[in-house]
Amino acid sequence: MAQDFTKVGVVGLGTMGAGIAEVLARAGIDVVGVELNDETLARGLGHIRHSTDRAVSRGKLTEADRDALFGRIHAGTELSAVAGCGLVVEAVPERIEDKRAVLAELDALCPSGTIIATNTSSLSITELATGTSRPSRVVGTHWFNPAPVMGLVEIIRTVVTDPAVLADLEALVTKVGKTAVVAGDRAGFIANALLFGYLNNAVRMLEAHYATREDIDAAMRFGCGHPMGPLALLDLIGLDAAYEILDSIYHTSRDHLHAPAPLLKQLVTAGMLGRKTGRGFYTYAAPDSSEIVDAVTSDSVPSSGTGTGTGTGTGAGRSGVPTRPVRTIGVIGTGTMASGIIEVAARSGYDVVLRARGEEKIADVRKKLEWSLDKVVAKGRITLDERAATLARVRATTDLAALADCDLIIEAVVEDLEVKRALFAEIDAVARPGAILATTTSSLPVIECATATSRPQDVVGMHWFNPAQVMRLVEIVPTVLTADDVTATVLEVARAAGKHPVLCADRAGFIVNALLFPYLNDAVKMLEAHYADVEAIDTAMKVGCAHPMGPFELADVVGLDVTLAIVRTLYLEFREPGYAPAPLLEHLVKAGYLGRKTRRGFRVH
Ligand SMILES: NC(=O)c1ccc[n+]([C@@H]2O[C@H](COP(=O)([O-])OP(=O)(O)OC[C@H]3O[C@@H](n4cnc5c(N)ncnc54)[C@H](O)[C@@H]3O)[C@@H](O)[C@H]2O)c1
After folding, report:
1. 145 included as an active-site residue
2. Dist. CA 99 → ligand 1 center (Å)
């Protein structure tokens, strides 16, 4: 018969234990909490008090319910108090010797039927389980921080786990309002194994001065809809914990992409552990505060001395670097990105010249534009007059020479280097001196476009996100030859168009794709290894990390062919063995399973 847990022990009432105790008590379960001494006990109860008081002040919990919740928590410093519990959750610090000692004591104290669960993030459950006399009843329950908020619990089974134990724990997790995914015993389980490679990659980007911490974080928030950027998230997790988790994952993967970035070690050694100490990648108002006090906005043009600074500036960007005046923007192309950029530019008050290869393509874009603006009018965001004025600002032509009076020309044609280079040479022949030439490429080197012209100092990357009307991010990519005032100007134009520009160097994948696609590829490798299925992996990342989509859902939307092409580009640029495309991804693309567009990718649509 399934076990109904009416009384659960929680050993260690720190960040996680206190949160777990709160969740259990809130669901009507009696909790026996155990701490080391009176001082740590008071601190642990303080965590619960603070968290529940906040829930009351936000109207999410009544005072009476809070008092009842506290009535169900029996806390002390004697481990023997948990002896009568059907389940004991261990949440002491992430040190194998501490965990082993607690589990040995619990094993001696508790009847043989008691289930012992460890909340470890990275240690081997098998090793912990086999150190007791009841390995079939020792499992991992990996909660996410903050436990009262995050919806996921990973239940970790070993080769000896009793299936009935898993069923009981899944039922308990559901009962307390969380989502359970069951996974095998592998370092990092599902969510951390995928998340930490990505986080480490972000630290390496910062370490290489590739982009600022603010821009790296903003890129993932505005480009991928993540609730937090990777560096702010590391500060929340704690850099010491992150170091340990990466180290454990590295020891099983042996992939140096998981070897903790040296900068992490430096920060940990300096005592900069993130929010909890008030300083990590960012500085906070106080220890445990979430208020960042030293954020810098992304205005600074790279001061690497690579720009030629030949601007004929009449204005100044926020960084003080002169900008060139931009009134008329030329857009070359008629695809999804071109249409979106035309709409954004025209709605922001720029005169737009659209250059297409034929009259029917012009008619297509006009239709798309009218249809899209109709939707904006229907939502009450613009008036009919504004719609008419926006359309009136867009001129169309099939003649490239008609772009001669444009101040900024944005190329958004097919992602093919030869096509883009040929086009840049043609633009070079017609654009006026001083005009800025931008490419929207998402994976080709901007410098290749620049060197196809006689004016590489005027060429810059402007990587918009799809749909351009909605997505706030624009990655601005100066090459080693781009003039500073060109970079400053496109930063200003992006801001004037209501976007959040970030600045990065001309490297494959820029910020977002370089962080996102190795992660997607890792998810495919995890699937391929039969560690977890599509549903479990998507659920873990969506519920455990609050991503808007799981990796397979996202790959199906992006297109498996596009995903593979970007992964290949990254692999070729960085020659990282860990970036090699997952064979399963290649096979699916070969089979024609490209995602939503072919109605079959990782899922059938
Ligand atoms: N912090 C996170 O984001 C996170 C997320 C998921 C899992 N985890 C895992 O949860 C576990 C706990 O992490 P945390 O962040 O809550 O750590 P923490 O340091 O905040 O809390 C640990 C608590 O255990 C107490 N303790 C130590 N030894 C004890 C003992 N012998 N008996 C009773 N209490 C004892 C400490 O006084 C402390 O209050 C670790 O295994 C960690 O890897 C952490």
Report:
1. no
2. 10
